[in-house]
Every structure is written in C-alpha cells, then in structure tokens.
Amino acid sequence: MKSVSDTIKSVVIVLLVICLGVLSSMKLIKLQIVEGDEAVTAPRYDSDAITYKREVTPTRGEILDYRGNVIIGNTPRTDIVLQYALFPKEYQEGNAILLRLYNELAAKEYIFEEVLPVTMTAPYEFTENDTADVTERLNLNVYATAENCIDKLISDYEISEEYTQDEKRIIAGLRYAMLAKDFSYNNDLVLAQDVKKSTIIRLKELGNILKGVNAVETADRKIIRGDILPHEIGMVGPIYAEEYDELKEKGYAMNDVVGKSGIEYAMETELRGQNGLEEVTILNGAVADIHTIEETVPGQTVKLTIDGAFQVKIQNALDSFLTRFGYYGGRKVEKGAVTVLDAKTGAVLAMATAPTYNLKDFEKDYDKLLEDPNSPMFNRCTWGQYLPGSTFKTITATAGLNEGVVDGYTSFNCLTNYEFYGSHFQCTGYHTYISARRAIEVSCNVYFYEVSRLLGIDNITKYAELYGLGSPLGLETGDAAGFLCNPETFEERGQPWYIGYVIQAGIGNQDCGFTPLQLATVASTIGNRGVRYKPYLVDSLYTYGTKEMTSKTKPEVAEKIELNYDYVYDYIIGGMVDAARNVPAPYNLTGYNFNVAIKTGTPQTDMNDKSKQNSVFIGFAPADDPQIAFAGVIEGGEYSKYIVRDIIDSYEECFGFGKKKNEVELPPEVRGGTTAKTTTATTTSTSTGTSTITNTTTTTTTTVR
User: Fold this and answer.
1) SS3 content of the chain, % helix, strand, coil (to 5)
2) Residue 595: how many CB atoms within 10 A of its CB?
3) 207: which DSSP letter?
4) CA distance linking residue 338 with residue 361, whole number of Å
5) Burial readout 153-188 (b: 16 or more C-beta within 10 A, e: otherwise)
6) Which long-range contacts (C-beta less than 8 Å, at least 24 apart) are formed by 332-337?
7) Per-residue DSSP letter, 129
8) Residues 6+ apart with CB under 8 A from 118
9) Mean pLDDT confidence for 570-578
10) Which of 551, 386, 411, 350 is nearest to 469 (CA)?
11) Cα separation values, 423 from 417, 426, 502, 609, Å
C-alpha cells in the first residue's frame, strides 16, 4: 500500500507532465510562423526559427537527333539572387542592401536588367506605351505619369531623402522588380546571371552585410547544333506577366523559363519534368537546415525522328540547287523548301527551308533575321502554302479512277486547245489520244480538264480531303491547314466562284494552297496505295541521362482511301515512274536498282505575268515498296526535280535502302556559309535546376538534382 508521500509525489509528477505538455504546445504554436501557405512548424528549433517550403525546379530534358546526337542540352551557370526568407522585411535596411548590392555588381560590370519601364534619369518618362501593368501594380490610376510611379515607390518603400536622385531611382527599380517578379519564398529575384568566381567571392565576403544575397547554381539551355532543324527545335524564354497566372498553377516560378516555340513548346510538359519540394529552416539570419520532402524528377530526353546528318545533307542539297539555278526569268531565286518522310510510318526525316538560319544567332541577330525580306525564320515546310500545280493531278487521277469516271484505258484527244463554257484553255503539249498513265507522265492538261469536268468540284474536294489537304496534319509543333479550291473556300475568302474554276482546280492551278509537308504526305499516301500516315517529329522519350526508353511513338494511320477498283494506283504510280525516267543527266533517276516515282508541277503565281511560277515536285522511292516520300517547292524558279537525286543519294548514304542502317558521322556545323567545329555551343537562360551556395554565416550546401 502506497504511503501518503508516495501518492503526493505521483500527483506532482502527473501535474508536471501536464504542465510540460501545455508549455510545449504553447511553444509549438509560437513556432508556427505563417507566411502565406509556405511556412511550416519547426519544433526542433527555438522561437527565432522560421521554416518554410519551396518548390525546386528540375533539370530540363535534352533534345537529341535520331542517332542520339545532342541538339539541345544544358550547361551550368551561377547567378546572384535575392532570397525572400533571408532578406530584411524592414524597408530602410533592405533599401541600403539593394543599393550596395547594385553598386557592387556594377563595379564588376553586371548591370541589373530593369523591368520598370521608366527612364533612369529625371525628368522621368515611360519607355513603353502600354503602362497598365505598372499603374495597376502600384495602385495608381491609368493616367499616372512616370514621375507619379517613381514617387509612389519612394513613398511605399520608405526610400530615404538622404539618397541622391539617381540612387532613389535605382532602389525604386529594384523594388518594382520584386513586385513584378513575384518576389517570395518560391521566387528568388535574379540580379545577375553567369557571374564569375571572383564576383561570388567578393559577395561572400560581404555576407553579413548583404543579407539575403546568394550565389545560386542553375543551368543555361545549351544549343549544341543550331543548324539542325532550327525552325522546329524552337526556343525557351522567360515567363511573361500575362502567362504567369496560368503557369503558376502548374508549379512554375516567375523566374523559370518555358518553351516558346517548336519542340521546346510542344513538348514542354515532358521536357520540364516535375518540381521537387524542400523544407528550409532559417535561424539567426542563416540557413540552418534544408530537408528534401519530394525529389525533383528531371525532364525527359526527347529523341527526334530527324537524323542530323541527313537533315544537313538535305539542307545542303536545297542550298546547292539554289546556287546552281539561282536565276529564272531575270529574277534571283533564293527561296524553297524540301520535306522528306518515312513512307512506312509518317516519321519526318528531314525538313529543309531556304533561306534558313542558325539557332545560335537567333538572339544576337534577331532583328536582322526579322528584317530579312526572304524571311529566314519562316518555316516554309509546315507553314508555306503553295499552289501544287500539276502534282495535284495525282489526286484528280485517284478520284477519276476510283469513282469509275474513267478507267486505265479511257482516253481523251489532246489537240492542245480545250473549250469549257465558252472559255479557252490550253495544254503545254499536243498528245492526241491519251489515257491515265501517259497523261500523268507528260502532265497532259486536256486529259485532266476532262476528268475534272466529269468528276465535278465535290468529288475533287472529297479526294483532296482524303489526302489530308485543307486541314492540319497534326504535327507536334503545328502545321498549316492549307486551303482548297472550291465554292465554300472562295465564299469564306470573299471571292466569287466561276464554273471554269472546276477544271483549273483539277490541275492544281487555281486558288488553293498546301504545305510541302502536306504534299510529301500526298506522295506517301500514293506510295502506300491509299494509306495515309500522320506525320510526327518525336521518335521517343528517355529518362534523363540514361538509355531507358519511357515511350515510343507508334505510327498512326490517319486515313485509308477505300478502293473501288484494285488498279487505281497501278496507273498513277506507273505514270510517276515513267516521269522519273525523263530527268536528264546528271540528275537522272534511272541508275538505281529500283524505280523512282515523281510528279512535277509549274503553277503560275501571277496570272498577269506568265513568266512568274513556282516549281514543285512530289515523289517516293523505291516505287514498288517505298521507304521515303518527299516533296519540294522552289519559289519563282524551275527544274526543282533536279533535287530528287540528291535526296535519294543522301538517304542511301545515311540509311541505305536495305534493312541495314548505315553509320554516318554528323558533318561539321554550318553557320553563315562557313563551317564550325561541332563543339561550338551557345546558351540561353533557363533556370533548370538549382544548387544554392549560401553566402551567410552558414556553411550549408544543398545540391538539387
């Protein structure tokens, strides 16, 4: 039996435990420092500790060519940033740090990039017309002047009168940048990029003064080969204010980058990866602990269907042609495009456009590129819309033969002239009685005028759509729909429709427009006897830094033309093979151990000037079991079919027409007509993963992968 004293002792112990529990709870409540939703409890530190969560940006995935050569990668750099958790909340202390930091960086020739659109010197004026964002952020009316904006910043942030006018403007600009860049736990304010080691050492020496200033390791987007498919690779760039609200919901910080065009934009989700999450504890003005809650998942590596060596060869073939046949009708010929597809899958093997540019020169020479009258940044393969000319006769032939309007033996008498509803039309030849195969070979207008008359515009439209014309083909990076020649399109464009347009539509020489990608798809569909594949640029995805494939693009049949007669494509392909035999040396297509199939066209681009024309071709090889399909356009020129041999020879060299794939070394990079070593690279800012080196009294170093 317990004594009274023992009982009293037990009660006291219980009371002490209860009291300690209450005190602990009170301390726990005190330690819950709330800054938005980002701060959390830090029970293992005293009441001066602040713990918060922040997202960590992953490393952006690389972009490779088909053989694994890196086109776009990453390279490390060090930035100087302000970090919210360590920066003084008291305005006057913060202002002093901002000015000191600005001057220290300026002494090292790092000038902070202003985002406040106001001149740096008085009398202050706006440097851009649209000032709505500025006045809204500062809670000023829309009529506020630049002087009003500076005065508001000076007042709101207690910028002392002891500073000079220039110093006030510097501090005001930095304070505005904090607003505009959403300066917070998750958004550091980047003050200088790619700083030298000597600058980092100097700032670390001033760590006790420059509170919140850190050296942060991040990454630049590294352009390894800027000459390979620049129009489709695209670029990354900063997040604009109008994008931020939407992107913030997806985990982006204001100082992140995002794909702006091409593959960088189309594959943004895959390339970006998944944010990590870490818990940071601040104690006595320094980072005391960083704890990883969720690991980052690096972006996936994107492997393209494009083989770099083959792409360069096709670009060279196009450029070489324009050099050899650089004048037509007294005019210089400088523009064109060539597209090559894998006929069995729809994979894009090459897309060359002239003139072209190098991604490495994009930022440096952007204005020059933009002002170039030949528009080198315009992707003619996917967005150029051209009259197809006589290449369209293959579609009219498909419609005529499959609808039973004609068969392979039906012939029409071509005596050059053709009358239709009182209008006079002509053929370029005098073919007498001619049927489908021969009509395709010699491109007889009269034959196809008659077939078009019998078909009517609805049937012509039907088969054009079956071939994928008049709608986007669904390329990952986007492509133009083109437009058909029919009454509906003319009505949409506000143009009158005349009955005579029916027969002109049937030979591809009346208002319509299709991309080289669409024309190459037409060629592929003919080679596959009515099976149309959806074109694609992304071959597969890989786990970053490994050979582990995570997904592979499967060929997709977009359309299958149901054949009413088995012989439909026999005559079309036969005529295209015959046409390929009519190419003169040294461009002839008869020296192979297989047949080549082509169809050409010379559509007039100015009905008031018959000398103005484009030169167009489509084709595939081998003719009986195609591996590649291709199409090309030369603007304002002729003889485009002379490129075909270079296409076939390049494919043979890079891949081979047998089952074995050839090994071909990537040739040197081409820039501005000269070659450069393949190791040359330039970078664009990305913020694709960070390693923070604190410059406060702590020695903590955290690496975020």
Assistant:
1) 35, 25, 45
2) 18
3) T
4) 23
5) bbeebebeeebeeebbbbbbbbbbbbbbbbbbbbbb
6) 333/634, 333/635, 333/636, 333/637, 334/374, 334/635, 335/374, 335/380, 335/634, 335/635, 335/636, 336/380, 336/632, 336/633, 336/634, 336/635, 336/637, 336/640, 337/380, 337/381, 337/384, 337/516, 337/632, 337/633
7) S
8) 124, 125, 126, 127, 134, 146, 149, 150, 169, 173
9) 98
10) 386
11) 11, 10, 12, 19
Residues ≥6 apart with Cβ < 8 Å to 112:
102, 105, 173, 174, 177, 191, 192
The CA distance from 263 to 267, in Å, is: 6
CB 669 within 8 A of CB 676: yes
**Encoded tokens for 605:** 């681009």
106/116 Cα distance (integer angstroms): 18
Structure token digits, residue 93? 């202390």
List, in sequence order, every residue forming a beta bridge with 72; answer none if it has no partner.
63, 223
Those residues whose C-beta lies under 8 Å from the C-beta of residue 427, and which sit 6 or more positions away, are 414, 416, 417, 418, 444, 445, 446
CA 443, CA 450: separation in Å to the nearest integer? 13
Cβ 691 vs Cβ 702: under 8 Å: yes
Task: Give the separation between CA 62 and CA 64, rounded to whole angstroms.
Answer: 6
Summarize the confidence of residues 78-103 as an average pLDDT.
95
Q: How far apart are CA 262 and CA 498, in angstroms?
A: 40
pLDDT at residue 47, as a whole number: 60
Angle at 604 between CA 645 and CA 387, to 5 degrees: 70
Amino acid at 651: Y
Neighbours of 273 (CB within 10 A): 20
* 75 bridge partner residues: 220
Residue 402 gets the label, from left (phi > 0), alpha (psi -120 to 50) or beta, of alpha
**CA-based Rg of the chain, rounded to a whole angstrom?**
34
Average pLDDT, integer, range 249-278 = 92
Q: What is the mean pLDDT of residues 30-48?
A: 44
Q: How confident is the model at residue 33 (pLDDT cuts 50, 70, 90)?
A: very low
HEC string for 572-641: HHHHHHHHHCCCCCCCCCCCCCCCCEEEEECCECCCCCCCCECEEEEEEECCCCCCEEEEEEECCCCCHH
Say what the pLDDT of residue 696 is. 32
Q: What pLDDT is recorded for position 605?
A: 84
58-78: burial string, b at 16+ Cβ within 10 Å, e else: bbbbbbbbbbebbbbbbbebb
Measured distance CA(202)–CA(68) in Å, rounded: 41
- The first and second tokens of residue 206, run together, are 């001033």
Can you tell me the distance from the alpha carbon of 144 to that of 159, in angstroms, rounded to the nearest whole number? Answer: 20
8 A C-beta contact, residue 45 and residue 285: no
Cα separation, 630 vs 317, in Å, equals: 13
Q: Which of 685, 684, 667 is nearest to 227 (CA)?
A: 667
Dist. CA 531–CA 629, nearest whole Å = 13
Chain segment 300-318, per-residue pLDDT in tens: 999 999 999 999 999 999 9
- CA dist 551 and 293 (Å) reads 28
Six-digit token string for 450: 């008659």
Residues counted in the chain:
705
pLDDT tens across 241-262, in order? Answer: 888 889 988 888 888 889 999 9
Q: Is 350 helix (H, G, I), strand (E, B) or coil?
A: strand
Query: Which residue, among 213, 216, 222, has the nearest Cα to 73 in the 3D structure?
Result: 222
3-class secondary structure per residue, 72-127: EEEEEEEEEEECHHHCCCCHHHHHHHHHHHHHHHHHCCCCCCCCCCECCCCCCCEC
Banded model confidence at residue 6, pLDDT cuts 50, 70, 90 = low
Q: Identify residue 565 by its one-letter amino acid code.
A: Y
Closest to 632 (Cα-Cα) out of 477, 519, 510: 519
29 pLDDT more than 80: no
Q: How far apart are CA 60 and CA 235, in angstroms?
A: 13
Q: Count other C-beta atoms under 10 Å from residue 204's C-beta.
A: 16
